[in-house]
Specification:
The protein is of the alpha+beta class. The chain has one domain: Lipocalin (Beta Barrel). It has 1 helix and 9 strands. It has an 8-stranded antiparallel beta barrel with strand order 1-2-3-5-6-7-8-9. A hairpin with a 4-residue loop joins strand 8 and strand 9.
Length: 119
Amino acid sequence: MKRLLILFFAFTVAALASEIAGTWKATAEGPNGTMERTFIFKVDGSKLTGEADSPMMGKSTIMDGKVDGDNLSFTITVKFQDEERKVNYKGKVTGDTIQLTAHIGDGDMTLEWKGKRVQ
């Protein structure tokens, strides 16, 4: 019985992680208005990779990505006004919606992203 529960838990975690994989379009309200970003997530076990693309910032590679059930975290590097800054994301996927909190640089700015899976 214990083995059966362990297998069930392992399959459940794998299923949730696979729900994160795919393309997501998200928006956040910044100091100068609404910003858009597309996230393309790839999941391999608990490892999250992929890229983020923004009309304002261009493409960024997802680094240090992790998936734990329906929670995810990752970092991207963006170039803004000739300065590279790290952006640390943490968030959660619920069905076809995603919510992410982004901490920019040393936490001097935080953005709340909300998005949907691209069908």
